[in-house]
Each structure stands twice: as C-alpha cells, then as structure tokens.
Specification:
By secondary structure, this protein is an alpha/beta fold. It has 9 helices and 12 strands. It has 3 domains: about 1-10 and about 190-275, Cobalt-precorrin-4 Transmethylase, domain 1 (3-Layer(aba) Sandwich), CATH 3.40.1010.20; about 15-95, Rossmann fold, CATH 3.40.50; about 95-185, 4-hydroxy-3-methylbut-2-enyl diphosphate reductase, catalytic domain (Cobalt-precorrin-4 Transmethylase, domain 1). Bound molecules: iron/sulfur cluster (SF4).
Length: about 280
C-alpha cells in the first residue's frame, strides 16, 4: 500500500506559534498560568497543555491573579479590557491573520459600516472577531441563511470570512450578498494555510483509494477538510488519533492519503501513519 501524507497536513503557522509560546512559558514557570478555553481544538494537545500545569478557565473573571493565554483563535476586545482592569497579564497568541480581520472589523465598525462575517457563529474565532464590532455583526454560515436577512436595513456592508471557511462557500455567499446589498467591501480573509490545505485535499481525494482526515471533533478546519474530501471520495474517514483508525477499512487498497487539520500535532499524524503501515497488502 502506498501511503501519502499531504504536505499541508498538521499544525499551521498560527497553531504552531501558539503551541510553542504556551508550552515554553509553562515549562519555565507555570505558576498562575491560565488559558482561556482550549489552546487548539485537539484532545491530544489539550492533554499535553494540562500535563504542564496550565489551568483552563472559561472567563477572565475566574482568575484572581496571574497570567492568561489568549489562544490563536483570538478573543473580543472586552476580554483584553477585563484582563487589564483586573491586572491580569495577557499572553496573546492570536494568529496574526486573525488579528488582521479583527483590525478590519474594528476600523469599519468605527466608520459605522455594518459587518458581515461568513463563518460559524459558535466558533471561538468568529465570536472573537464579532467582539471587535461590539457584537453587532451579521453572521452567516450557509447560503440558505441569507433569506433570513432583512436587506431593507442593509444598504452597505463589509464582508469578511472566518479564516478556516471553505473558500468556495465563502465566494458563493459573498457573490449573493453583493447582488443584494448596494455597496459592499469584500475581504477574502480565508487564510493561505487553509486554502492550500483544502486545494491539496481535493487533489489527494481524487488520486487515492481512500482518505484519512485527522482532526479534533470541534476543529472547524478539520471538519471542512472532511467535507471536501468526502464529496470527492466516499471512502473518506475522520479520526481524532491513531486509536480511532479502523484498519479494516483499508484492506486491499493500493493508495491511501492522510491529511490533517491545522490543530493536529505531528506526533498524532505519525502515529496514524505507523499504524496504517502495519497493514499488509
Ligand atoms: S488556520 Fe490560518 S488563520 Fe488560523 S491559526 Fe492557522 S495560520 Fe492562523
């Protein structure tokens, strides 16, 4: 069996940076070090962070003193303000690409332009971006949701995307919004890492007998990779780690590809690869 690991599988630059900053700080001094939510949407990474003594909190108010890590997904302005008011030191690992969207949203909100975010309203990154326009954004995750928008009140708009949005879906939604809203400014803020990963996933899904997508169940970008690959190759399987790999699904196959979301660490990809290699064919 020929096993191909996608060249874009695993940690993106933002996830890598957040992981390295947090683990390095924790190894030096984990006293009163807290993290706001999950560093990355991956159980193995969360276990590792916990093993270093970093305490997870849901909100800044849960901390009496110390430091708080803001994750790569970023957070709203109110979170930074609350930390400052409490005298809690912020370790900001927000990905620079997310910061760029936050700044766009902040600027145009100040100019009184309505903001539309194409993304998942329950995702941390989207909630954080919305926190830079006083939570006023219209959030759309699917084309069908456009019918719920009152366009009489929306004469102009600034449209941005969650960084891990499916690029094709973002373009479709932005196109329909442009037809319905008189003046729009569209910023394609799907990040390069996501674009490359999705493009490569399409390619490997067509070229292989089966595809394995490794990612956390809460990882939006991993779920998107699964959607993309499954559409092109019905033999696509989503797993969180090697333990979940069912070798029976790959018996007698000649070519299998492995890809992984931006929050999946290399060691999980390697363990999956090694397990798959044990299959004789
Ligand atoms: S997916 Fe892109 S935007 Fe998100 S953390 Fe990674 S590099 Fe940054």
């Amino acid at each position: 069996m020929k096993i191909t690991i996608s060249k874009f599988a695993g940690f993106c630059s933002g996830a890598k940076k957040a992981y390295e900053i947090t683990t390095n700080i924790a190894k030096e001094n984990n006293k009163n070090l807290h993290i706001l939510g999950d560093l990355l949407h991956n159980k193995d990474v969360i276990k590792k962070i916990e093993s270093l003594g970093v305490k997870k909190v849901k909100k800044v108010q849960d901390i009496k003193k110390g430091r708080i890590v803001i994750t790569a997904h970023g957070d709203g302005k109110n979170v930074f303000d609350e930390a400052q008011n409490k005298g809690v030191e912020v370790v900001n690992t927000t990905c620079p690409k997310v910061i760029k969207i936050q700044q766009l949203v902040k600027k145009f909100h100040r100019d009184n332009l309505p903001i539309v975010i194409v993304g998942d309203k329950n995702h941390k990154e989207v909630k954080g971006i919305n926190g830079w326009c006083n939570k006023s954004a219209v959030i759309i995750s699917r084309l069908e949701e456009i019918k719920n928008i009152n366009f009489d009140k929306l004469k102009n708009a600034v449209i941005v995307s969650q960084t891990t949005q499916n690029l094709k879906k973002f373009q479709e939604i932005a196109k329909v919004l442009q037809e319905k809203i008189k003046n729009t400014k569209v910023f394609n803020t799907v990040c390069d890492a996501t674009r490359n990963r999705q493009g490569e996933t399409r390619k490997i899904a067509k070229e292989n007998d089966a595809v394995i997508v490794i990612g956390g169940e809460k990882s939006a970008n991993s779920q998107k990779l699964f959607e993309i690959a499954k559409e092109l190759n019905p033999k696509t399987f989503f797993i969180e780690n090697a333990e979940q790999l069912n070798l029976k699904n790959f018996i007698n196959l000649e070519k299998v590809a492995i890809t992984a979301g931006a929050s999946t660490p290399d060691w999980v990809i390697q363990e999956t690869y090694q397990k798959l290699k044990t299959l004789k064919s």
